């Protein structure tokens, strides 16, 4: 999909929990290799973030947009 | 890390591109199994999203928060 | 309103669906001309995005902030 | 596009300003009728938000995802 | 301001660093008492989050919208 | 915490309202001095935002990530 987002990850829906207004969708990830993050350059320098560092990528579920594949 | 986010993914920094105010960080994902998305129940019903469906999870890089591991 | 956001769109509330913690508000748009998106330059180049291209702007409802007008 | 987002708005790219890491894309909106916002029910009650109210929808450009149409 | 956001914090601009497309604005906070976060109920239960717990609220700068006061 | 976010604010959980899928957490802020916002340079110039200006920082609760401290 030609979307202006750096992270596009394929998976299979594992569960859907429907609430009154919001729903929680869980997805088993089939394959992901590289992900991208944009942060301030000040943060990069504060963390002294560089190639080879081990990181944990934290992403709130509200920021994850599922697109149903044909 | 005890953070209130459903998605916490481990990886290794692959590259850091520093800009004047923002930077782009690429991360090779070591291991991820399940991811979570929160969308409106209306969207779930419109898409008729259910277990077994193939989806693409789209996540803008600005929504990805890297935490440096010791 | 002097807010640091590029998109400020006037409309009339059409419906409010109240949930236990979150609510879904629908708004009929009276008038909008131009909208703005910020993405990585890498995405612009990957998509070869340029003047005249047809696009669909996708915006999750959690990212839309309503301000009540007097 | 079968995306889990309530707002999908068609338009034509008007301008692209490329920066070192981020770019600003302006889009002329061809047609939009209804938009959706998700806020806390507490906010709805604080604002006494109801059908017929005039609102301004404020959306930061980083939250707007452009998808290039064929 | 009658905005549908739970967090509205008053402060004084301390510095503005202008980049080619994005800018970083620092603000000295004059007064803030209570802040609000919305997370999944699953996260609340995983973290066993309850009254009296010490927390750190992490907020990316791209999610902070400044509104200039008269 | 070595996170790539400019805003990290310490506080004490005041209340937790659990919903079917989402929960609202209120936090009494113990101490915050400076906060940061990233907006487009165009917005800075439109607002003529500069040192000494009084601003209100508006942050939706979904963008606030709580991390439980030991």
From TrEMBL, chains A, B, C, D, E, F:
<protein>
    <submittedName>
        <fullName>TOBE domain-containing protein</fullName>
    </submittedName>
</protein>
<dbReference type="Pfam" id="PF03459">
    <property type="entry name" value="TOBE"/>
</dbReference>
<dbReference type="GO" id="GO:0015689">
    <property type="term" value="P:molybdate ion transport"/>
</dbReference>
<keyword id="KW-0500">Molybdenum</keyword>
<dbReference type="InterPro" id="IPR008995">
    <property type="entry name" value="Mo/tungstate-bd_C_term_dom"/>
</dbReference>
<dbReference type="InterPro" id="IPR005116">
    <property type="entry name" value="Transp-assoc_OB_typ1"/>
</dbReference>
<feature type="domain" description="Mop">
    <location>
        <begin position="2"/>
        <end position="68"/>
    </location>
</feature>
<dbReference type="InterPro" id="IPR004606">
    <property type="entry name" value="Mop_domain"/>
</dbReference>
């Amino acid at each position: 999909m030609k979307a202006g987002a750096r992270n596009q990850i394929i998976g299979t829906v594992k569960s859907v929990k429907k609430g009154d207004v919001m729903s929680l969708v869980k997805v088993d990830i089939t394959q992901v290799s590289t992900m991208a993050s944009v942060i301030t350059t000040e943060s990069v320098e504060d963390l002294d973030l560089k190639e080879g560092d081990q990181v944990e990528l934290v992403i709130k579920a509200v920021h994850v947009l599922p697109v149903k594949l044909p």
